[in-house]
């Protein structure tokens, strides 16, 4: 064979190799793209396994094609014999590639397409954005932050008030003996009885419609009997100028025991005055000023005097006189306005 003919043969062989590479690469990409999809309902797993084997067989066939092109024409004496043998081997390898491509295409059609409506269970919710109405995380965190700030503020106030009273019931310092511990008597708790009587007398003169009688049945501690018009009576138990507890009863109820002493334990038999007793206990916790106990007593008596119109003042929120059969039993600590227990929230 002449040189131009041989040159045309090798050029044609190069074009065939390029075409084989392009076809094999495209078919492999398409098949792998199908098999790369997530396996779920609708996928033939047996065909999928055979398709993987067909891909391996196709790769082997393509490798043999390139090996035959690399080796060229050998083992023949004449040039014509070598060309015929090369063309025969090359055609056989191309037929193998074509056969493997057809088999892979058939198996890829048998694999099937995965169903798009398969259930994902709880894992399908991971890609969804949370709904603000169902997951109010921000509002809960904001409320907890406000609550913690308020708790810290009130704890600081309680600590400062306890430190001002100087009531040390525990050891002041670790390692200090009880003999050397200074015994400090708080000045606000050791007020003379005459000073307490003067403060109560001044408060009694401030409110003409309120009468206050003072007695000391058990030593130096004073017990006050406060009569507010013809509405109620209040028994106020004091420790020096500090109010320990108070009990509110109706005007016609008995406030004395059989031996003639003030009954500081029994509650009122009427629900309305039981409510007022609870609110008075809350007022005792609200009015706290250890440095000026006389101001605390005067503020509490001013608040208690606002019940002079217990059965006459309507609720400032709903405007009604009765709610659940009860009048407005709550009085605001600052404005002294009347509210029902549920309307003050």
From TrEMBL:
Main location (coarse class): nucleus
Keyword field: Nucleus, Transcription, Transcription regulation
GO terms for MF: transcription coactivator activity
Superkingdom assignment: Eukaryota
Localization in the cell: Nucleus
GO cellular component labels: mediator complex
InterPro entries with a match to the protein in the record: Mediator_Med27
One GO BP: regulation of transcription by RNA polymerase II
Similarity comment text for this entry: Belongs to the Mediator complex subunit 27 family.
Name of the protein this chain belongs to: Mediator complex subunit 27
Organism this protein belongs to: Callorhinchus milii (Ghost shark)
